[in-house]
Amino acid sequence: MRNTPGRNVIFGGALALSAAAPLALLPHATRAADGALGLDNLTFTLGGTIYRIPHLEMKGASLPAQDVLALFTGDTKNIEERLARFTAKSVVIPTLSTERKVGDATERASWRDLVVDGVAGGRIAALRAAGAEQTVERPAGEATRYVWGASQARGVDLRQLVHVANAVRLDPQEALKPMIEEESVDSLAIADKDARMTMKTGRLVMTGVKARALLTPPSQLFERIGRLDPDKTEADPTLLKDLIEALASFDVGAIEARDIVATGKGEPADKPYTISAGRFAASRIAGAGVGDVALDNFSLQSSDGGRIAFTRFGLRDAKLASLLDAPIPQLSHIELKGLDADLPDGRISETSRMKFNITDVEANFADFREIAPTKLSARLDRLAIDLAARGEAPSTAQFLALGYRALDLSAALAGEWREKTQEAVFAPLRVEGRDMGAATLKVTFGNVSGAVFSSMALVSKAAALAASVKSVELTLEGGGLIDRLLALEAKQQKGGVEKARAEYAKGADLAVAAVLGGGDKAKKIADAVSAYIMKPRKLMVRLASEKGINAFDALARKPAELLEGMEVEAAAER
């Protein structure tokens, strides 16, 4: 985290009303004629952050002046107890500043016009600030500036804020308690020192925050993050585990950011890039996991003139704790809608473009065993690729020759592991192309033990090798691709299409015999394939083995020998 923003605007303001460490300047309290209490020259440290409040005014305080002053200067060991007795009608802080070190970075922030209404038992009914500015500076001269707009919060529990900032959790079963009901900031602007990157957002909202004390003090975590070298993660091998534990100590009902726009200098510098998103939202954040994540109306305009956009990206039930055992987090659902891409492809020519779009793609995962799902499904709805835009590229030349100026593909996948029978079934695996046809594959594997899902690679690989193929069924429907292949062949050979069809059918017969032998079962397959080529409507081939065929069988025996030990069905719609 090279430029980590400081704590949230409201978090900083709320914490400033909380506990304290030894003073750097002598504070004092004054009582105005109207009974308002004034405190001056407050400087204290909380959670590794130094707070400075030149002056604050308080009305309707339930504690005597010296007891109120002790909230900022007293012993932190019983600050939660003192806060529980603290009640005030209002607190006004014209200016507040903070400073802290995170690794080699120094973070400084200042808030304007903090107003607190209704403090009862250390709990704030409402809190607002006119705005805030923050800088993060590093020794090499790098600096990032954050400008926060007006902010508001309600239901802020100072006791819990102090507890989370100061305490170390001793009870593993400590319950999470409400800390902030709702918090919002009207806007945020971020810019680095030389303006190579700037970002602006609209309204930011967070609701339903609960928390408990961390096992590792927050200040220590920030220090470790500041020292982290991405290329030397082994220097702090337990950091990820401690971060996940820290995240598990917070629950958040929902987070939302709107109207996000980031710009930066590209290569060359006079051609900037732009990233924008209409909305980012996350909800049901608990136990180091996120129930729902959504990114809407995203767009990336790159420096080279490329563009990628989508209407929605979403995740469901992402569990960050699974990163301890796997490179990607466990989740139950992922989706992408309305993807549209137009990218330059300089490898082909200056005018060549990679243009494609996807209507909808999603995947679902369920019934996890260790690190992997035992049930899954996926769907790709209309992947459209503009072949003509690429020009005469080797990868598109053959399709263009067949008359395809664009590809329009859809696909589906479903699979599950059946523990009772020790089988893994994939049905269907289907790919369909517009003006091409469709292929559907169904596969059943036997002798699949739960060890296949082990997080230990050696164990899972050994279990996979022990599995066997029990049945395979392939169905082809439609003949658009075959008809175009035959038409192109006839054109190149300057002959008729039906002549080419007959030659291909005969060639398929010979090819099957060469691979699978000349037995009756091989002949049944060859006849069905030849008939499909002659009239490409529908072809079905099914191979089954009661005992199954594993990897060692496939290596030790010839295909013809394997075929003879299998049940064979093959038919073509004539």
Descriptive key words:
13 helices; disordered N terminus; 574 residues; alpha+beta
Count all strands and give the number. 26
Overall helicity: 10-25%
Shape: elongated
Poorly predicted ranges (pLDDT <50, ≥5 residues)? 1-11, 13-25
Protein architecture, described:
The protein has 574 residues and is an alpha+beta fold. The chain contains 13 helices and 26 strands. A ten-stranded antiparallel barrel has the order 5-6-9-10-13-14-12-11-8-7. Helix 10 runs antiparallel to helix 11. The N terminus is likely disordered.
Short note summarizing the structure:
This protein is of the alpha+beta class and 574 residues long. The protein is built from 13 helices and 26 strands. The protein is 22% helix and 47% strand.
Architecture blueprint of SSEs:
Layout: H1 9-15, E1 28-31, E2 37-46, E3 49-59, H2 65-73, H3 79-84, E4 88-102, E5 105-120, E6 123-129, E7 131-137, E8 143-148, E9 151-157, H4 158-166, E10 177-185, E11 188-192, E12 197-201, E13 204-211, H5 218-227, H6 239-247, E14 250-264, E15 273-286, E16 289-301, E17 307-319, E18 333-344, E19 353-369, E20 372-386, H7 394-401, E21 406-418, E22 423-433, E23 437-446, H8 457-466, E24 468-477, H9 480-493, H10 497-516, H11 520-534, E25 538-550, H12 551-556, H13 559-564, E26 567-572
Antiparallel strand pairs: 1-2, 2-3, 3-4, 4-5, 5-6, 5-7, 6-9, 7-8, 8-11, 9-10, 10-13, 11-12, 12-14, 13-14, 14-15, 15-16, 16-17, 17-18, 18-19, 19-20, 20-21, 21-22, 22-23, 23-24, 24-25, 25-26
